[in-house]
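Appendix B. Raw example, untouched.
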Amino acid sequence: MVFPGQGSQSVGMQADLAAEYPVVQQTYAQASAVLGYDLWQLIQEGPAEKLSATLVTQPAMLTAGVAAYRVWQTAGGVEPTQMAGHSLGEYTALVCAAALGFEEAMKVVMRRAQLMHDAVPSGDGAMAAILGLDDAAVIAACDEASGIGIAEAVNFNSPGQVVVAGHRQALDRVVERAKEAGARRAIMLPVSVPSHSSLMVGAGEALAEALADTAFHTPRITVVAATDATPYGDADDIRSRLARQVYGPVQWVATVQAIIAAGATSIIECGPGKVLAGLIRRIDKGTPVAFIDSNTGLQKALQL
């Protein structure tokens, strides 16, 4: 079971699941009580610009992932042997693996979102997606742009798909260099927070304080950390790695390969969208994949 992060949100998401399973709106009500506003109403009515703001997106994606997993449980889905999450999705995985309470996770994620939002002045940070180049070529393009500012490969999503982050001017150069090197696509992403780059070191260090005051437990289900593709351990290990995760690259290819090597016979994306399902198919074409983004998706997932 894998959980998506920012980027998979959309206005109206999970409406059909909510119509069939009351646990969806119950989960959003729990979240709203912590947030202090009606998260379900915001997601169903928008506007999309507000939902895409980091301060809203992170709590929204945490809630959506937990709601989808509770639907899976309600529908009689089997307990997974392993879990993982992409960036923010790691918090969702830890909640669903009973390593962290949902309300406690919501408070930490709110703090995480604020710290990441405040880490870089508006307009200074950026992220870009590079498609069709190998990892070494993308890293080389980042190195060439380093004289202008920070530019780093931060999400190794699938073979031939790497996301870079850093200063906007430096990333403009990376995009140019990537196109010159033969990239199929090289585009700036509509985000202002350079997640998982060294520009987030201060945010990670500050987040460590909030994590120190949060109750964690050893996960009941194995949760593979996407920073290094190894399982999370005890509470102190979780705190340490979640703090570093803010400014460390997401090793999604290695994480999926580790899950499969450990015996996964199928992988289900739990939450809105199907971004991770698409990446997994490119990483390993032989492993069956499903996604719980709707009632139709749920029924297909239950049949795996």
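End of appendix B.
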